[in-house]
Amino acid sequence: MDRNEHLIEKRESLKVGGGEARVKRQHDQGKLTARERVTLLLDEGSFQEIGAFVEHESVSFGLDKMKFPGDGVVTGFGTVHGRLIYIFSQDFTVLGGSLSRTHAEKICRIMDLAMQNGAPLIGLNDSGGARIQEGVVSLAGYAEIFYRNTRASGVIPQLSVIMGPCAGGAVYSPALTDFVFMVEETSYMFVTGPNVVKTVTHEEVTSEDLGGAKAHAEKSGVNHFTAANDVEVIKQVRDVLTYMPQNAEELAPKTSHFEYSPAKNKAIKSVLPDNINSPYDIRKVVDSLIDDDSFREVHKDFAKNIVVGFARIEGRTIGVVANQPAALAGVLDIDSSRKGARFVRFCDAFNIPLLVIEDVPGFLPGTDQEWRGIIAHGAKLLYAFSEATVPRITVITRKAYGGAFDVMNSKSIGADLNFAWPTAEIAVMGAKGAAEIIFKREIAAADSPEDKWKEKEAEYADLFANPYRAAERGIIDEVILPEETRAKLILGFKMLENKVETLPKKKHGNIPL
Q1: pLDDT digits over 197-208, tens only?
Q2: Which positions are catalytic?
Q3: CATH of the domain at 102
Q4: For all residues of the chain together, what is the average pLDDT?
Q5: Residue 203 domain boundaries
Q6: Does residue 248 fall inside a structural domain?
Q7: Distance between CA atoms of 493 and 289, rounded to whole angstroms?
Q8: Strands (E), 220-346
């Protein structure tokens, strides 16, 4: 056979992975193959594979008779929307996508290149875990990946897409990356599987209930984005990448075209209900301020009392953090603090300005929150905002009470601009509770305590349940009409484009984990 023909033949053999029967089984489960996923994710014709013919060198337990080119992972680089990215895609049709020493070395090579060249890293995970036949060397391979994930954190964006099983030690690489995407019904993550859980704790649970996309989206918060199938999740990844810079030294790309519907600016006046205690959807406020169809919510199904996500204003990427009055009245609790803090830190690491929409009545009270560490977890959000050096603007729509007011990007923790709507109430607590404490004796001595309480509540509200006392002290920069907000944000972020702020010299801070 001609040598050129021999090469072509070997290249063709790569397409069948672990064999046609295994590829068929993959398709029957509603899953794409590793190579199909890479082709779908990257721009057409842009993929350059690295290590296509690499094979493992193990001989124990019959492995010498089970060799496949690539050793169960497709690695290389290409472009998404014309921008360089590095990628690895595990091939479940080859020994269950199990990670060998060689498999790990291929992934590490791609991670090193991503760091050296300052481009995002995408991992498509579909693996049964460490290759048991290789013993400890496969575990060492995982550790080398974890080490690189940690070193790359905050330097390049790292996205993990779970498209099949991801169990045991394999879960820690995705957990170390910036965002996790999962596919409903066909992907799952857990440290120990259902069989071990049953043996140790006697709990009966399925893989889906224990570690499926829904469980991690709603309960643990490990999963940031959920999709119905492989095709949809890859579309999500391509879309989210457009909101991110290539690395920590660059800015996110600005879109050449954007639209903003004037009708949204008129509608913003009617978003807030007349009753200050009535709920409303903060997403309506967010949508009224940003470019049309530009909001990409992160962690949509987790800690619903806070909303975070990417958006654009006049084509430029911003990160949005907003209290959600429609869920738990928008209070801060353990999960919402964790969710907000992690998103703020990502945005700060990658030069994405922050917009905070505030309507927060305080922290969630109760023994459950206190005993599970609301103090430390709430401090994470405080720490994240205080540490952030990107442009930061806060808009207070309604309630801003107590310590939660401080935490939500107040001027005193480094916010650049703070605006308030006329409906804002900036105070230590609500008027009702404050009146009960301040005027306790007067209320008790009154002929009609209830009427006296209402009278004193109105008195306190008139004095403090408004934005003007804060504006007088410079804690609020300006009280603005709702329909003026977008224009103020455009001017504010433009003014802050060249902001430079450096943190004190240190190895790193000690965030309350």
Answers
A1: 999 999 999 999
A2: 168-169, 403-404
A3: 3.90.226.10
A4: 91
A5: 3-241
A6: no
A7: 13
A8: 225-227, 296-298, 306-313, 316-323
